[in-house]
Amino acid sequence: MGVPTEGESVQIHSYKHSGHIHRVWDETTVLKGTQNLVIGGNDRTIVTESDGRTWITREPAICYFHSQHWFNVIGMIREDGVYYYCNLSSPFIYDEEALKYIDYDLDIKVFPDMTFNLLDEDEYERHRQEMQYPEVIDKILKFNVEKLIRWIRQRKGPFAPDFIDIWYERYLTYRR
């Protein structure tokens, strides 16, 4: 597995457990890239859905991917604060084509006041049966939902008070 270079623009590819592409983010600027951690930034990037439809993100975002955690976190910077969208997913891999992960349906949306909602439990259950997620994956994902909730409550990792601001400032240096 390679390591993306700081300042490099990479695509992000989200897959489903079946191996089918789910979603592609066209451009994300790498702000930190190691074997274990990738932090990226993007703003108004093109997103392509599996059915070919495209849309453009509305606000700047800082993305957090870790090779040891079964989730990734996107901090979206809006006028009224930072909203986080957390995907329960496989740990990322990076090859020369893109940063890649498997999306496992469950999501947590976190609001600027750090309240949160667990989303898409019905979609997860449906896909778990349709794509026959192994029991070990089910257990790993449920454990990581609890871990993510602890991180949110403890303001740990990407939820730390200055995390998004610090990385957004770094992102802006590449935009100038």
Automatic annotation (TrEMBL):
In the UniProt entry, which residues are flagged as the active site? 23 (proton donor)
Which InterPro entries does the record cross-reference, listed alphabetically? DUF402 (IPR007295), FomD-like_sf (IPR035930), Ntdp-like (IPR050212), SA1684 (IPR016882)
Give the EC class as a word. Answer: hydrolase
Q: Where does Mg(2+) 2 bind?
A: 105, 107, 120, 123
Keyword Iron-sulfur included in the entry's annotation:
no
All residue ranges annotated as the DUF402 domain in the record: 19-156
Q: Mind listing the GO molecular function terms for this protein?
A: magnesium ion binding; nucleoside diphosphate phosphatase activity; ribonucleoside triphosphate phosphatase activity
Entries under Pfam families matching the protein: DUF402
Necessary cofactors: Mg(2+)
Where is Mg(2+) 1 bound in this sequence?
Answer: 87, 103, 107
Per UniProt, the keywords (alphabetical) are:
Hydrolase, Magnesium, Metal-binding
EC numbers listed for it are 3.6.1.15, 3.6.1.6
Question: What reaction(s) does this enzyme catalyze?
Answer: a ribonucleoside 5'-triphosphate + H2O = a ribonucleoside 5'-diphosphate + phosphate + H(+); a ribonucleoside 5'-diphosphate + H2O = a ribonucleoside 5'-phosphate + phosphate + H(+)
Name the protein family: Belongs to the Ntdp family.
Q: Which PANTHER family match?
A: PTHR39159, UPF0374 PROTEIN YGAC
Provide the function of this protein: Has nucleoside phosphatase activity towards nucleoside triphosphates and nucleoside diphosphates.
Q: Please state what the protein is called.
A: Nucleoside triphosphate/diphosphate phosphatase
**What species is given as this protein's source?**
Mesobacillus persicus
